[in-house]
Amino acid sequence: MDYDEKYVGSRADFLKFMQEVMKKMSSRSLTVEDGVIELPDDVELEYKIKFDEDEEESKLSIKVCWPKPGAEKAEDEEE
């Protein structure tokens, strides 16, 4: 299931937005479409930053991934 929120603003608006996101992540109160996003303490996070550029636009993406609880156990059982 994907959740998505979109914002438009100035550079200053974006930097303020990112500060708020970081604050909410550290206090475990970040929400996206009313779903609470909590970074787990007990697994390794995979994170990366990506920059793409073409003739029309530039894109900066920050991505964080982690396994769901029990996902590793389910993979072991399948093998």
Features:
79 residues, two-stranded antiparallel ribbon, 4 strands, extended
Task: Draw up the topology in text.
Elements: H1 11-26, E1 30-32, E2 35-37, E3 46-53, E4 58-65, H2 71-78
Antiparallel strand pairs: 1-2, 3-4
What's the short story on this structure?
The chain has 2 helices and 4 strands, in the order H-E-E-E-E-H. The protein has 79 residues and is an alpha+beta fold. The radius of gyration is 16 Å and the shape is extended.
Output mean pLDDT: 90
Euclidean distance between termini CA atoms: 26 Å
Q: Say what oligomer this is.
A: single chain
Gross morphology: extended
Tell me the β content. 25-35%
Strand order of the largest sheet: 1-2
Count the E strands.
4
What low-confidence regions span 5 or more consecutive residues with pLDDT below 50?
none
Radius of gyration: 16 Å
Major sheet = 2 strands, antiparallel
Helicity range = 25-40%
- H and E string: HEEEEH
How many domain regions? 1
Total count of helical runs of at least 4 residues: 2
